[in-house]
């Protein structure tokens, strides 16, 4: 009994039966269209092909097929890792944006404390700007400490500026608008309509 064969109308072009990946001329080959490899091959290699072209090899050797499968797995792994890292960063930023933040700016005769406090019920402790570990619940207590311990002058001032925690609000510390509130409210809606 003999193996089935097809009579070809034209002889096979040698360039049509070489591997598209490594140009190998022998070994086990698979047709990328018949074996469902074409989509991955064109996406991963970025080879642009809109139509099949007669005479252009459609074959991929077993080594290149394994490389293609490895690249596909690596691509998927990278996408999964990217998604995970971005999710972690988003959670981290959400936690960061959810905490009260203070920025101290010490000028000639003035201490400006910028408070961005999304947690309106949380107690704010005002830090000493001279790197001592003391914190104060009231502006007057901080001022008394600065006079007594750090010998600031009588005309030294402490100013508190309160900012909205919503990033795109004009009352956000990073908005560039220089708009702030002079007092803290336990109800965010009394200042901003967020």
From TrEMBL:
Gene it is expressed from: LOC113491626
Keyword terms of this UniProt record: Metal-binding, Zinc, Zinc-finger
Domain called C2H2-type: residue spans: 126-155
Domain ZAD intervals: 17-88
Descriptive protein name: Uncharacterized protein LOC113491626 isoform X2
Residues holding Zn(2+): 19, 22, 61, 64
Listed Pfam families: zf-AD (PF07776)
GO molecular function: zinc ion binding
Species per Swiss-Prot/TrEMBL record: Trichoplusia ni (Cabbage looper)
Gene Ontology cellular component terms for the protein in this record: nucleus
Top-rank taxon, per record: Eukaryota
InterPro entries linked: Znf_AD, Znf_C2H2_type
